[in-house]
Amino acid sequence: MEFDVSYYKFHGVDRAGLIDALGLYDTGTPDPGGEAPYAIADLPNGWFVIRVDNDSGLLADYDRNSLAREGMLVTCDVGSVDPVSRSQGYDAGEERWSVVHDGRGGEMLALEIRGEAPPGVSALHEEAFAATRAMMAHGGTHGPGPMFGVPLAVVKSVTGFRHDEPQLVSPEPVFTWLAPKDPK
User: Fold this and answer.
1) What gap in Å lies between CA 17 and CA 118, rounded to an integer?
2) CA angle 129, 51, 3 (to 5 degrees)
3) Left if phi > 0, otherwise alpha if psi is -120 to 50, otherwise beta: which for 131?
4) Per-residue model confidence as pLDDT tens digits over 44-87
């Protein structure tokens, strides 16, 4: 399954050490338009986020468990063509939970919850289920529905960050370009 954008949110991880281990460096150049293939932002709550556009390269070569050998990692993968969204939580190198909506083939009610999901997932699921059923009853069956947003809402509940919403925190996170240390 291909995703258009992936977000890797880290807490309790050595930011500089991780970037160096990935073979990148922070250029400090702001990326307000989201054009960088790799970008990073610090959140005011101690988390930092690496955004990866079309993750077919660098981070795809890493097992997500190994990226979170220390601290916590929460990932969010979002497909723009297929209505697919996925969030996963890792702690000390082990996957603890995942929440996946795969709406391909018209599966608007699909939601898979595995592991020890964060508090509130059941309520988010129930709310999205009811909203989706109401939408379907009124003929809405195309495009991403309310269930698509459940994994994204879970990410926000854990990290305080949801990529598709305004950031109502101060200071507002600013993504900066990450570049390879040794461009080829």
Assistant:
1) 28
2) 50
3) alpha
4) 899 999 998 865 566 666 777 778 778 999 998 888 677 788 99
Q: Minimal CA–CA distance to 11: which of 36, 56, 43?
A: 43
CA 93 to chain centre: 17
> What predicted TM-score, i.e. pTM, was given to this entire model?
0.86
Using alpha carbons, select from 76, 38, 50, 41 the residue that is nearest to residue 169: 41
Q: How many residues does the chain have?
A: 184
Distance of CA 106 to the CA centre of its chain: 23
Distance of CA 157 to the CA centre of its chain: 12
Whether the Cβ atoms of residue 28 and residue 178 lie closer than 8 Å to each other: no
Instruction: Give per-residue burial for 67-78: e unless 16+ CB within 10 Å, then b.
Output: bbeebbbbbbbb
Q: Tokens 């101690």 map to which residue?
A: 46
Contact 114, 87 (CB under 8 A): no
**What is the C-alpha separation between 34 and 163, in angstroms, rounded?**
11
How many CB atoms neighbour CB 179 within 10 A?
15
